[in-house]
Amino acid sequence: MKTLYDFMVIEGNIGAGKTTLATRMAADTNARLILERFADNPFLPMFYENREKYAFTLEMSFLAERFQQLKNELSLKDLFQPGIISDYYFLKSLIFAKANLNTAEYDLYTRLFHIINDSLPKPDLFVYLYQDVERLLENIKKRGRPYEQNISAEYLNEIQSSYFEFLKQLRDQRILIIDVNQLDFAQTEEHYTQITQIINKPYNAGITR
Question: Is residue 131 part of a domain?
Answer without folding.
Answer: yes
